Fold this protein.
Amino acid sequence: MTADRSLPAGFEALEPHVGYWAAASAQQRRAAREAASMEEIEAFYTAMLALAPEAIRSLEGRDMRDLEGAPLRLMQLLLALAHVSMATELHRQPRAPFTPYPHEVRLVEGPRILG
Amino acid sequence: MNDQVADFRADRTNLTALAGLDTAPVSLEPYRSQDWFDAEVRQVFKRAWLCLGREERIAAPGDYFVQTLEFARAEVLVTRTKDGRIRAFHNVCSHRSNKVVLEREGNASRFMCRYHNWTYRNDGELVGVPDQKNFFDFDRKSCGLTPVACDIWEGWIFINLQREPEVPLAEFLGAFGEIYRGIPYPNADRSILFESRLKANWKVIADAFAETYHIPAIHPETIGATFASNENPFARPISAQTWGPHRSVSTYGNPEYAPPPGSQVERLFYSNIATGNVLSAASLDDTEVFRRHPAINPTKSASWAVDVTWLFPNFQIDVSPGGFWTHHFWPVGQDETRWEARFYIPDAPDVWSRLQQEHYIARLGEILLEDVGNTERTQEGIASGAKDTMPLQDGEVMIRHSLHNLHKWIEAGTVAEALA
């Protein structure tokens, strides 16, 4: 696969976000969002949303079970966008109002595909 | 059956009276008394049939899982044997009472205790004892794993900790068990699990998922706009039903809900999927299967959101147009609970459905945290002793019905009497 590049061509603008946001499991993506500041969340949200339609198009027709390397990391960034949107689109703050943090409410079994 | 339909547009609803329950404030002692908790364990949890989940979890011969029951200081090993039967046993070796199975789930036809290598078949029979000749008058046949009463209803696994259950499962479920026959459970073999151990009485957690009155307050951004509307601003239920100790409410959904313009990710991820309910992770076909069943959305309301069905004592099945999920409220101690919320969702092998699913899971995490994040504060308030009772409104009828039946079981000398 694309071993020499972290993300597929055309998505270089997202490289700074791979290290933190391209996480393997749904619980890790959720935890990453909960631990991030609103500034960090907004920076990723803005960058990712701008390229999201193009990223989705580049992954159309692919079986999510077979993703690896650069396309997998791009998909993980798209999945992380779902989590950060909770902060930007619902709560307008990093976490839900009046909820405890840290907390032990954990997704202990994720979905079988990219979970 | 006790079928109660409310007009949520009326000045007030009358579900509580129709269920035959009184309307006085209820005591808080069941939520904070150690004596009450001990009585619950003895009279309720050790006498009632308890649901452990779907049989599809152990679909193949040899599949097994171990369920911890902290209130009984017990672990139950549930297996599927090669003849396809599901069996349950105490996870305790017949030799020196060590735990036999240390994994939480897996597939094995035999289990070996790690203490002295005693080996059991997954039907409980003891098949291997090292140096058996050095025991005295040893009868291997009588030294199998101790069985736990186990039965299946509509694919749901139930156990009963009475050695000889006083009533069979069918009698325990009663009319509920008849009316809820034939419901297909889509994706019953695949689920995601949220879990937490919470410093609150198990009923504080169960109650939090038993009424919709809290939704506009606790969930203003996550689901407030989907469960309430100008037509029903306080998210009153559509109907309530009771069958013996079991109960259900059918809850209201705003048929006008659409993602607000600012929810760009939600709108993008759901833009390519034809579904009637944007909170869901299921297909329209699944939705239609539920809608056709007479027990689901029993009034066939166009404004239906979720049916919350609470099986006595500690298990809830939720059915919505988007699929089904369950809650288990396992008492650990008087003020400690292990809560499990399992959502049954399909595999999502393409980019669009997988993104929709992640958005669904992300929002679930928020909703559940809003719900249970509130419970430890509630327990602290209850424990303070500031209040002796709590007033319950009509939409909280399931909480009242739960307490009413717990009282009955605690006072009843026999299960038949408790069910009468």
Summary: Chain B touches chain A through 42 residues (CB under 8 Å).
